[in-house]
């Protein structure tokens, strides 16, 4: 994200976005169409949603002079999606992130640099504000601010783990005219980051997904990120069943080069996962490789939901210059309504022989009512290769209505 040209936009963006939506609504109503009864019915017969997520996060790093972080934050979200009117539909979603108690953590905005980072700064902003048109056969055109979640979010995602989600200002086309196939095209103008900043860009995304195979889904993609990188790749993933046993597999390969004014480099990516589910227990083994070009520049994923990959301690949100090889083992099960997960990672440099340590991640979650879910998560990273030991603990309650 820091490679893009940044422009600081927080609360003032709310006013600008609301004005833009008002102008758009007025333009849709030109020529007397707005007077139709159907328009008001669509505006008032929509669906409202509320989402509250409280989280306590503790971060303890073995860095001299750096105090551990204790972040207590609440995300409050309001979402309203209108009904359909003349093949148009709109959505507005507003998020507020508030600190509960003392700010004994570095949010990257509050000046507490003597503490470890928990990147959940306070603020209120429009998370989504879009208008969609479905009047063309098997096609949706969407314009505005929206979440973009492609495949497993390794390259393009929403970073939904953080309290402030990453969303995109786009003009997008989604077409399903070919059987079992979804084509996604989007031009991205701005990226609304997890720290509450807007980042200007001139990027283009293409993804095609085919679900017609019995054994899995096939995706091909090309992501052109302005003055960062061009990434093209292919992914095949599925969960075929054999009797009472479910097999799991993921196979992915991608190639990446510089784009525009970015320094020249060429690096590849691969991810292989195999696993089984039997007797309510799932076990997987995976290996993800982000190559380095001569130890200078490595394969990168600046718009990915990177918390899902390479350990929950977030030590590798950016790829080291000598690349990264992550070999991991996952086990999960459900007991009495509790979802239990354990993941072990072993990290090494892709270029050279540097050891980057290992990590153990544990989580337990339970849906206590139809609307309320509780979660506990822990990450213990044993550092090497110049990275500090880090332990993180999360306690979370989420209510959706």
Question: How would you characterize the overall build of this protein?
Answer:
- By secondary structure, this protein is mostly beta strands.
- It is 6% helix and 55% strand.
- The strands form 2 sheets. It has an 18-stranded antiparallel β-barrel.
- β7 and β8 form a beta hairpin.
- It is globular and about 65 Å long.
- It starts with a strand and ends with a strand.
Helix and strand topology:
Elements: E1 5-7, H1 12-28, H2 37-44, E2 47-61, E3 69-81, E4 88-99, E5 123-133, E6 139-146, E7 167-175, E8 181-192, E9 198-213, E10 216-225, E11 229-238, E12 241-242, E13 245-258, E14 266-278, E15 281-290, E16 292-293, E17 297-298, E18 324-335, E19 338-348, E20 355-367, E21 372-382, E22 390-400
Antiparallel strand pairs: 1-9, 2-3, 2-22, 3-4, 4-5, 5-6, 6-7, 7-8, 8-9, 9-10, 10-11, 11-13, 12-13, 13-14, 14-15, 15-18, 16-17, 18-19, 19-20, 20-21, 21-22
């Amino acid at each position: 994200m820091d490679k893009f040209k940044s422009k600081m936009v927080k609360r003032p963006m709310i006013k600008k976005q609301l004005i833009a939506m008002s102008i758009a609504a007025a333009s849709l109503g030109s020529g007397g169409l707005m007077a139709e009864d159907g328009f008001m019915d669509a505006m008032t017969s929509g669906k409202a949603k509320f989402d509250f997520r409280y989280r306590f996060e503790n971060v303890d790093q073995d860095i001299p002079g750096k105090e551990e972080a204790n972040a207590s934050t609440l995300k409050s979200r309001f979402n309203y999606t209108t009904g359909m009117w003349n093949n148009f539909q709109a959505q507005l979603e507003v998020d507020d992130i508030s600190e509960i108690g003392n700010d004994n953590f570095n949010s990257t905005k509050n000046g507490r640099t003597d503490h470890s980072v928990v990147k959940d700064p306070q603020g209120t902003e429009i998370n989504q504000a879009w208008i969609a048109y479905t009047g063309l056969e098997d096609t949706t055109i969407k314009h505005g601010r929206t979440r973009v979640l492609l495949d497993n979010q390794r390259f393009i995602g929403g970073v939904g783990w953080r309290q402030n989600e990453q969303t995109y200002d786009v003009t997008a086309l989604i077409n399903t005219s070919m059987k079992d196939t979804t084509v996604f095209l989007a031009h991205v103008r701005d990226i609304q980051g997890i720290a509450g900043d807007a980042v200007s860009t001139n990027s283009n995304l293409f993804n095609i997904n085919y679900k017609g195979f019995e054994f899995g889904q096939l995706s091909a993609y090309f992501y052109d990120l302005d003055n960062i990188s061009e990434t093209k790749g292919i992914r095949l993933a599925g969960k075929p069943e054999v009797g009472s046993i479910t097999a799991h597999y993921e196979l992915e390969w991608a190639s990446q080069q510089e784009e525009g004014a970015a320094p020249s480099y060429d690096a590849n990516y691969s991810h292989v996962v195999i696993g089984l589910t039997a007797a309510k227990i799932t076990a997987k083994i995976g290996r993800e490789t982000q190559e380095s070009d001569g130890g200078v520049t490595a394969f990168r994923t600046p718009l990915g939901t990177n918390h899902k990959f390479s350990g929950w301690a977030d030590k590798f949100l950016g790829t080291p210059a000598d690349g990264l090889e992550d070999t991991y083992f996952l086990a999960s099960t459900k007991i009495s309504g509790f979802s239990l997960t354990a993941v072990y990672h072993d990290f090494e440099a892709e270029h050279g022989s540097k050891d980057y340590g290992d990590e153990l991640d544990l989580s337990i979650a339970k849906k206590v009512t139809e609307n309320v879910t509780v979660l506990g998560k822990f990450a213990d990273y044993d550092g090497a290769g110049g990275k500090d030991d880090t332990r993180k603990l999360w306690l979370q309650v989420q209510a959706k209505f």
